[in-house]
Description:
Shape: globular
Amino acid sequence: MDTQKLLSSVLCCFLLSMLSGRQQAVQGNHHVPSNIRPLKLFVFGDSYVDTGNTNKTQFAWKYPYGITFPGKAVVRFSDGRVLPDYIAKFLGLESPIPYEGWKSSSCGIPLLKYGMNFAYGGTGVFDTAFSPNMTVQIDFFEQLLKDNVFTAKDLESSVMNASAESINLKRIHGLGVKKIAVTGIAPFGCLPVLTGPASSFRQCNEYYNSFLGFHNLLLNQTVEKLNVETEDCPFFIIDLYASFTSAIKNEGSIKFENPLKPCCLPNVSGDYFGCGKVDENGAKLYTLCENPKSGFFWDISHPSQEGWRAVYSALQATLEQYFLH
Length: 325
């Protein structure tokens, strides 16, 4: 797999949070001022937000993924928690069940208390060979609405966080979602897959980042246009580019020894999915750092749990403003 294909597998992630009720959400040890208390979280996207949908042949089902949380590999593409886990906690919820887990369970409706995660690793906005793309994930959700697994009442006072593709954004708004947070693209020129060969994990690739910055500029323009076209101005931006950059530059309270160097590093140069691989004798084909908290990145394309915590910390003010007010 070439670098561009790898990048395309992590370019899109988005979250849909359904809210109703009029209570307070709890963040940490204090209450976040709010007129509403969220009851359900719905997640759509790729490996950055997948918590268990990707099939078991994929590398994130193998050790050492999940060693920090929940203690075993369950297809979080990290050593532990990922962004929707932090957002769920911010909203006062537990992380919602993965769609595939719900389909294979006999427990049914009780598992839906906190919503559902539809995200699959390796997906994108457009057609993807091995994973349901964004449109198909929304199809899954819409079918659950038609089947009354979730109801129109669940859509009241709703908030959504999504990567931008105008048709899908309009489609979800048409389902009754009133507030849609559009996730910008992170600075993927800082991924270890690019910074390792070029600078031994010391400098981001600003050539790639310049294109992504231009994408995010167009994204802002798209969101502004969509708001003009709708009466209730439901769309707003969650700036992953700025939050990643802040965390990588150690600008927040969470610091990293070498932010660009991944904790789990393949021994073979160019092996994009080498974390977790072993040879025929069971010998590891990767090197694992002593402390996953020391690096922003877990593998060559995904943040560590501590990395996501730093991103969430940088996003918290925006989340308070748009999700809870």
